[in-house]
Automatic annotation (TrEMBL):
Signal peptide: none annotated. One of its GO terms (biological process) is riboflavin biosynthetic process. It comes from Geodermatophilus dictyosporus. The lineage of its organism: Bacteria, Bacillati, Actinomycetota, Actinomycetes, Geodermatophilales. One of its GO terms (molecular function) is 5-amino-6-(5-phosphoribosylamino)uracil reductase activity. Pfam families: RibD_C (PF01872). This is Dihydrofolate reductase.
Length: 193
């Protein structure tokens, strides 16, 4: 069965964006190195970041995102980010008018439907769920197997929280990955079930 990973770049104080959805310097680490992370050479990271991130990105088959993320990214223009095969959008609304029905995007109502559709599409590969409110719903429902954070040395003070609106304690194992890159610290925790 597919592993479900909650993932995002995050400030030291736990935010994935400001209140206005501006990620600020959270993605600067993706252009602060010498090693091309993507085929176009736009993203360049340290060798340590490449060795950690590239294999992870290659194992992701499906990304689950909320409708808010879909809307603010304009659905990544119909092309899933980071070479992912499919995007599952958790939304109570249908796709936007004029949306290409052939795009590999699947609109579902609720997290149970999202995890079922994502696992079906993933074929045993990794399912990634965006951190924030949607990610917190998956964590609260017990669907998250692993938490990955790219911790960036910035303090936001307020904004959109990595763990969204989680209202209960969730235990994680000790980090089994701690890697320092340029302007980033990569962390991976398994979730205790």
């Amino acid at each position: 069965m597919s592993k479900v990973v909650m993932y995002a770049s995050v400030s030291v104080d736990g935010f994935i964006a400001a209140e206005n959805d501006d990620p600020g310097p959270l993605f600067e680490w993706l252009v602060s190195g010498e090693v091309a992370l993507d085929g176009g050479g736009v993203l360049k990271v340290s060798q340590a970041s490449y060795d950690y991130v590239r294999p992870y990105w290659d194992e992701i088959a499906v990304t689950i995102a909320g409708r808010h993320v879909f809307d603010i990214t304009d659905g990544w223009d119909g092309t899933p980010p980071a070479g992912v095969d499919h995007v599952v959008v958790v939304s109570h609304r249908p796709p936007p008018e004029g949306w290409d029905p052939e795009a590999p995007y699947h609109f579902v109502d609720g997290i149970a439907a999202a995890v079922a559709k994502a696992r079906e599409l993933a074929g045993g590969r990794t399912v990634e769920v965006a951190a924030g409110d949607v990610g917190s719903q998956f964590l609260a429902a017990g669907h998250v197997d692993e938490v990955r954070m790219d911790v960036v040395p910035v303090v936001f003070g307020s904004g959109k929280r990595f763990f969204g609106s989680v209202h209960a304690q969730h235990l994680l194992e000790d980090p089994d990955v701690v890697i320092q890159g340029n302007r980033v610290l990569h962390l991976r925790y398994r979730v205790r079930h």
